Amino acid sequence: MRGVVLAAALAAPWMAQNALAQNSEYANKLAPYVASPTRVMDRMLELANMKPGETLYDLGCGDGRILIAAVEKYKVKAVGVEISPRLVARAKAAIAKAGVQDRARVIQGDVLNTDPDGADVVYLYLSTRLNEQLRPRLEAHLKPGARVVSHDYPVPGWKPTKVEETEGSQRHEIYLYEMPPVKQ
Ligand SMILES: C[S@@+](CC[C@H](N)C(=O)[O-])C[C@H]1O[C@@H](n2cnc3c(N)ncnc32)[C@H](O)[C@@H]1O
């Protein structure tokens, strides 16, 4: 009996972890949901230098705020990729509320399995490790002249065109890259 209890106790953490991994809300969720502060988002969109009609991808788009801001302010098309079904639902509701469904959409999926085809701008707020994993996909799919803006985390192996630190009590870093990237 004691053996059974011990086996169950040992298996419990593994089972819990496995259950989390099976749940698409958490499977391969490699960065937590933290929204870019509005001033950081505004500056990142500004640095991306978007022209009307271009396409922005927000890889890990959270609640979709960036998609809506980009569409409304810069008259671009916007695509979000988000792994959390709960955040996908929130983003879709926000897009509908803003009335921009014709120009903004959200794909539920893993950024490591989604090709940002046709992107002129890629917005990232993930992690250095995830950026590193994404790098080959970005190099393969982004056209010359496309811009990548990353909040707080660099893309290892690429030399940024610009690095900017935001003002204020909470400092944020913005990395701007242009394709094809200069390799470090
Ligand atoms: C730090 S938040 C950034 C949200 C938004 N881009 C912003 O800047 O306000 C990172 C987002 O990436 C999502 N995420 C994490 N791992 C992911 C993955 N492998 N594929 C797609 N989305 C992912 C999280 O659920 C979260 O919403």
Q: How would you describe this structure to a colleague?
A:
The protein is of the alpha/beta class and 184 residues long. It folds into 2 domains: 1-29, no CATH class; 31-183, Vaccinia Virus protein VP39 (Rossmann fold). 38% of the residues lie in helices and 21% in strands. The chain is built from 5 helices and 9 strands. The protein has helices spanning 2-22, 38-47, 65-74, 85-98, 128-141, and strands at 55-59, 77-82, 104-108, 121-124, 147-151, 158-159, 162-165, 173-178, 182-183. Residues 8-22 have low confidence and may be disordered. Bound molecules: S-adenosylmethionine.
Distance between the termini: 60 Å
Radius of gyration in whole Å, from Cα? Answer: 19 Å
One letter per element, helices H and strands E, the order comes to HHEHEHEEHEEEEE
What's the arrangement of strands in the largest beta sheet? 3-2-1-4-5-8-7
Q: Could you tell me the mean pLDDT?
A: 89
Q: Would you tell me the structural class of the helices and strands?
A: alpha/beta
Q: Under the CATH scheme, which class of the largest domain?
A: Alpha Beta
Estimate the global geometry from the Cα principal axes. globular
CATH architecture of the largest domain: 3-Layer(aba) Sandwich
Total separate domains: 2
What is the third-level CATH name, the topology of the largest domain?
Answer: Rossmann fold
- For the secondary structure, the number of strands is 9
User: What proportion strand?
Assistant: 15-25%
Q: Helicity range of the residues? A: 25-40%
